[in-house]
Amino acid sequence: MKIQTTETKKEQATIKLVQGTYTPAEAADILFSLIGDKIKFHNLQMLSLQERFGIESVHSEHRIKELKAAKIQAKDLILQARDAGYTMQIEGDVKISFLSKEK
Measured in whole angstroms, how far is the alpha carbon of residue 12 from the centre of its chain? Predict the structure, then answer.
């Protein structure tokens, strides 16, 4: 089996991750899934660093706190929209930039 790779010359890219109009229930599924996956990622990072090197990840701990706050904020907005009978427009881009190589 041959694996094909493509080389990119770009140093920056933007990917549209979420774009559309959703019911509050759909918005909850999307947003809670994204936030939950990021929290899971940071929890695994913290566990890995602790197990392998015996060190704490202050960055991951901080990000988890921020993400939990974002989840509460998203929940409040979703409840507001639901109670008022609104749909929700969500647009989320991921911006990717190349940085210099680590040595």
Answer: 18
Report d(CA 15, CA 7) in Å as an integer.
17
Distance CA 22, CA 26 (A): 6
pTM for the complete prediction? 0.83
DSSP string, 27-52: HHHHHHHHHHHHHHHHHHHHHHHHHH
> What is the overall mean pLDDT for the chain?
92
pLDDT at position 87, please? 98
Distance CA 15, CA 64 (A): 23
- 82 close to 24: Cβ distance less than 8 angstroms: yes
